[in-house]
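Alanine:cation symporter family protein, pasting as requested.
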Amino acid sequence: MSAVIDFLNNIFWGYVLIYGLLAVGVYFTIRLGFLQFRYFGEMFRCVLASPSTDKDGISPFQALTVSLASRVGTGNIAGVAVALTLGGPGAIFWMWMVALVGMATAYAESTLAQLYKSHGPDGMYRGGPAAYISRGLGQPWLASIFSIALILSFGLIFNAVQANSIAEAAAKPLETLLVNWNMFEAASADGLVAYDVAKLIVGVAVAILTGVIIFGGIPQIARVAEFVVPFMAGFYLLAAIIALIMNIDRVPGILSGIVLNAFGLQETVGGVAGSVTAAALNGIKRGLFSNEAGMGSAPNIAAVATPAPHHPSSQGFVQALGVFIDTILVCTATATMILLADVIPSSELTGVNLTQAALGDHFGTFGPIFVAVAIFFFAFTSIIGNYSYAENAVVYLGAGKGGILVLRLAVMGMVIWGALQAVSTVFNFADASMGLMATINLIAIVLLSGTVAIVTRDYIRQRKAGGNPTFKVSDHPDIAPGVEKSIWD
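Structure tokens follow.
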């Protein structure tokens, strides 16, 4: 199995997706007339619009925060540090480029998710890639494969990985407390060690907290994300702003150096070196992993939203903004704090340790503690965000309330298991599963790109005319098959 999984990952991530995600991003950027640049302000307008009185979905702002809960994870802390270590400062430039074209992909997939959404068995809006693959392309069997792959990767295994990150960050301090309080010996005769007990305690605590939220369903997840995510991201960005102000004289050189290093015009930036090839490869990979544009994950929550204005494109704009916030803001915050610090990435000092060392340089002993707290919130919100995607997939597969209950219990079990186990092997399986769902999704949105273009032109035409865009599917009979007319007329 390991050999098969490694082969699939090599195909998906070495060839298909690295080039496919970039190509699709460039394709939609051109086909939609550089929409993410020309109508950047529209993204904020759609997020901040007055919520609809339609109670069958969540608000646009809630949809943004739930998708950010999933997008903004430990990769924004550890992944950026790894990209700097392996690719040098120029890797950050390529992360920016991936995000800028990925905004068009995110717009396209979330617009389709809105267009093809339907009322689920509980009355709430449901949809996502499975819906537009099934009803838009007429391929329900392919939509089922997509849904299974999403449940395995985002619903189960990635949540174990996030729980592992929380346990690794919290178990050591808890172990110290357990030993100091004489509750456990550092290593007892029967092999039970305080560190193992600490990880178990962390895993059970996170599982219980997860259960309290996910058993309330997507509305409860949306309420939590709406409150937690802005504070979580806001405090992290505030730390970066403080670091920038403290080193304001070096900031222009760092930012220009990132661009120059990406093309080999400057060898080192902030004491960090990297080649052009390594910068491009690692920046692109980490950017794609971080913002998830084209993966087919965020459209699952985009479909649940009640858009404002009442038009599929408005939720497309909202999710495009999510990519911008994740990569251009949060990932850049991590990168600049590392480059402005008196630390040098190495094979020994990378990932979370590098970010902690950088913040320790800026803020003293408070820095590593701040990173540990950030890891908890970034990872925990990813768990509940990922679960919301998987719940939509379970509903599509027709599993009903029983299937949702099984999923919730399985997610809690995977959180405990992930806190206790090394998850590298299973993570490879999740990569293959995510690679499969992303490949299916990319093919689907390209085949439906004509529909995206029609819907986008309709929105822009109405906005330019000074009106509040409203979509009526009866005005577009060429895209009517598969669209639920009761929602859009």
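Note for the archive: Residues 2-488 form a domain with the Amino acid/polyamine transporter I fold (CATH 1.20.1740.10).
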